[in-house]
UniProtKB/TrEMBL annotation:
Residues 1-21 form the signal peptide. Keywords: Signal. Residues 28-102 form the DUF4398 domain. Transmembrane segments: none annotated. Pfam families: DUF4398. This is DUF4398 domain-containing protein.
């Protein structure tokens, strides 16, 4: 009877471990996707510190997942995703600022041409 109870406890612990693994693996996959999206948005050039932090945390999350430390893997994956989203936002913002500056320069040039044309 004790042997049966012990086997049941082991089976329950194994089931709990499997239940923790799935969300941790999913969070790591989501963080990887977030890092890839940030890189595609230009974060490597426009937000290098943030994307570096995201990559490091994603790497550590993968290592924790391999070590079956699912709680740590999830925590690091969530942090990596947040860092990647920040990097992507900074990259997008930098691109928008550059585009606005270029548009302002074009408008100034156009106004100067209009002013010259009106003076003649």
């Amino acid at each position: 009877m004790k042997l049966l109870a012990g086997a049941a406890v082991l089976a329950l612990l194994a089931a709990c471990s499997s239940l923790q693994k799935a969300p941790a693996a999913a969070d790591v996959a989501v963080s990887k996707n977030a890092v890839e999206n940030a890189v595609q948005a230009g974060a490597a050039e426009l937000a290098p510190d943030e994307i570096t932090m995201a990559r490091e945390k994603m790497l550590k999350a993968n290592q924790a997942l391999q070590a079956k430390d699912y709680k740590l893997a999830r925590e690091l994956a969530v942090q990596a995703e947040a860092d990647a989203k920040l990097a992507q936002s900074k990259a997008t913002s930098a691109k928008a600022t550059a585009a606005a500056s270029a548009l302002d320069a074009d408008l100034r040039a156009l106004r100067q041409e209009v002013d010259r044309a009106n003076q003649q």
